[in-house]
Amino acid sequence: MSKLLLLLAVTILVVYLIKRGSRRGRDVEGPEKPTAEVEDMVRCHVCGVNLPRSEALMSKGRLYCCDRHLHQDQQ
Ligand SMILES: [Zn+2]
Predict the structure, then answer these.
(1) Which of 8, 39, 43, 68 has its C-alpha lying 20 to 30 A from 60's C-alpha?
(2) Quick one: average pLDDT of 11-40?
(3) From the CA of 44, how far away is ligand 1's center (Å)?
(4) 59 C-alpha vs ligand 1 centroid, how far in Å?
(5) Which of 31, 30, 50 is nearest to 41 (CA)?
(6) What is this structure's pTM?
(7) So what's the pLDDT on residue 21?
(8) Quick one: average pLDDT of 16-36?
(9) 56 CA distance to ligand 1 centroid (A)?
(10) Separation of 73 CA from ligand 1 center, angstroms?
């Protein structure tokens, strides 16, 4: 009887680990795709280069690729 309980416990543990493993696998895949789709590209007001919005510098409603271009346009 105790062997049967042990077998049941091991089976539950294995099923739990498999489920957890597959869920983690999906989590790793999941976040990468949405960020790539959500991240929109913007254009530098000076040189016109495209860059992700998170990397762009914003000043007075205009976007720039770098500090140099931001200051260049402000002058
Ligand atoms: Zn630029």
Answers:
(1) 39
(2) 74
(3) 5
(4) 13
(5) 50
(6) 0.49
(7) 86
(8) 69
(9) 9
(10) 10
